[in-house]
Amino acid sequence: MENTRVGPFLIVKRLGKNRRQQVFHAQQTEQQRDVALKFIQWPAKVTLEQALEKVQREVVRLKELRHENLARTYGAGVHEEKIFFASELIKGESLAAILTRRGRLTTDLVVEYGGQIAEILRYIHSEKLVLGRLTPEKLMVTADHKVKLIDPRVARPNRRRWDAPKRPQPEVAAYLAPEQFTEGPSANADFYSLGVILYEMTAGQLPVEPDTTGRMIRNKKNLASPSVGEQVMECPVWLDKMIAQLLEPKPKHRPYSANAIVLAFDEIKKLDTTKKGAAAHIAGNFNPLNAGRDKSEAKRVLGKKSSARQEPTEPFYQTIPFLVGSLILIAFLAIWLALPPNAGDLVVSARTLVASANPVDWETAAESMKRVKESKSKFAPEAEELYLQAKRNALLDLAKRGMKNRTFHSPATRTFVDAFAFEQDGETEQAKALYVELVRTIDSAGSKAHIYHEAKARFGKMADKIDLPRSEKMLLVLVEQVKQARNERELLFAKRVLTKIYVEKSGEPEFEDVVDAAKETLDLVQQNLELLADGKPLRPATATKNLESASELPSVDSAGQSEKANPASGEDGAPPASGSISP
After folding, report:
1. By the 8 A CB rule, do 84 and 39 touch?
2. What are 78's strand-pairing partners?
3. Please, what's the b/e burial string for 519-542 (b: 16 or more CB within 10 A of its CB; e: otherwise)?
């Protein structure tokens, strides 16, 4: 687990885990800062590319959010087909852990924490966003009682987040508003979640205990708003009423806005100190939670300006046309400064990065070359080579260091690391078998092409010293000849030859027929070895595709040459081959 590299991050330890995500403490080596890495899952119908595109758009918005009660979002990335978010690491204890340990909290802590959570909602809602899934797991409390939202993933009002499950788990559903199971998230639904958290902090239990999701939904919709005062005798009346209003089954009966809730908490703090609400006294017992029902008084207490028209008195440089023009000019300047570097410059930089010994440089090169090779520019071919080399460097580095935690890595990566370990330990047959498995199962042009090419190269270094003919026709002749193997010695030799042909020529379009023939013959040879071991008759060989009958084929001598070909003149495109291919 420790010392596992994920892109530019080095994992330190696990922080938490649930059914849909894992969170780790990591160090961003280049910036020398601690971060929290959260790995997420996404719906099966969404591909990795689609999920990453959605996450990258989401991160752009999250990085813009700035509030003292929000953990900063630094970015997101993908590692071994797992998507992660990188955010500010908050030192403290989750509110969920505190409630598990302490049961319920004192009234002053409920008010203190509740007021800060309301501040979070006020800021998020002012940005025309909603949280949708506010739970104690997402709230971290520091040693000085500062509440931080550590998972500020947001959604648009009335639009379900793309990766949200249609039917949440009961432990999450307990905090959701009743209408949220059929509709998208909303500000009113966030208020309900705040009410559940306040109830739990005050009473030490949930207002509707998590049962089956269906029964929980019915109870939330049909039961009257629960009273925390019935559970806790010493609960102040004003806190009981606030929680009851937040937990109203119908959204329209809940508070008017997050701003009203913040004001109500301010009044509660004053009431706790002076035994009388200052704003209530000034506004004639006006209640901020009812701001929507007393709009004239609400505007006055909430500090909203009158709609009466006023004559502009500001100088020209403060007028709207001047300010709009200035903003447009600034926007154009920002766009110009943000233009990406030239593809050629990126390629030049990537050459240096790939040649570096720093894994962070390889990751940087891979990211930049991925964009260039997808651009279809004239630099795309070299970008493809540099991208593969950077990924192969990182793969070998991982294999050399050893896989501390297999959770982060795909099955193909795990197989390669195992093969490399066998190779280093001298277990060549096991290593070669795993390398062949990788070559046979991985798409040479897919997302794991770097594993395919590295496995192919390492197998080539370990393979038997058999010099193969160079022309397609001569290779097909060789496949046809080894297909005639009938005893164990010949079959084992045929298997080595066919495996070498398959691995070395796989992925080369001009040898597609050769690879197909080698694969088909390799299956036949393996079956015959098994039949031979069981004492059963061997399967007969059939003619290779695209070749005439075996009797009409030129024979191949011990040097891999056709007797009918003229090596000196290079007929059939097969120059003289050295070495021996006989068993």
Report:
1. yes
2. 83
3. bbbbebbeebbeeeeeeeebeebe
Please tell me which residue, 113 or 30, carries the higher pLDDT value. Answer: 113
Q: Quick one: which of 45, 49, 60 has its CA closest to 83?
A: 49
- In a 13 Å sphere around the CA of 145, the CA atoms on its Cβ side amount to 10
Whether 162 is in a domain gets the answer yes
Tell me what pLDDT residue 288 has.
54
Looking at the structure, tell me whether residues 129 and 107 fall in a common domain: yes
State how far the Cα of 197 lies from the Cα of 137, in Å rounded to an integer.
Answer: 11
- Please tell me the total count of domains within the chain: 4
Q: How far is CA 318 from CA 42, 285, 315, in A?
A: 48, 40, 6
Sequence-distant (6+) residues with CB within 8 A of 362 are: 353, 354, 356, 390, 391, 393, 394, 397
Residue 315 in any domain: the answer is no
358 shares a domain with 241: no
**Average pLDDT over the chain, rounded to whole?**
78
In a domain, residue 273? The reply is no
Residues 99 and 223 in one domain: yes
118 neighbors 210 (Cβ within 8 angstroms) = no
Instruction: State whether 120 and 170 are in the same domain.
Output: yes
- Digit-coded pLDDT (tens) for 245-256: 999 999 989 998
Q: Which helix (H) or strand (E) holds 468?
A: none
Q: What's the pLDDT at 148? A: 94
Instruction: State which of 215, 234, 254 marks the end of a domain.
Output: 254
- Residue 22 three-state SS: strand
Q: Is residue 308 part of a domain?
A: no
Q: 88, 115, 147: which is the final residue of a domain?
A: 88
Contacts of 579 by beta carbon, 8 Å cutoff, 6+ apart: 465, 466, 467, 559, 560
Boundaries of domain holding 230 = 93-254
CB crowding 16-37: b at 16 or more within 10 Å, else e: eeeeeebbbebbbeeeeeebbb
Distance CA 521, CA 495 (A): 9
Crossing angle of helices 380-401 and 343-355, rounded to 10°: 30
Q: What is the pLDDT of residues 278-289, one digit of tens each?
A: 444 434 444 556
Residue with tokens 């947001």: 154
User: Closest Cα partner for 118 from 256, 305, 237, 236?
Assistant: 256
Task: State whether 215 and 100 are in the same domain.
Answer: yes
Return d(Cα 10, Cα 313) in angstroms, integer: 58
Answer whether 533's CB lies under 8 Å from 556's CB: no
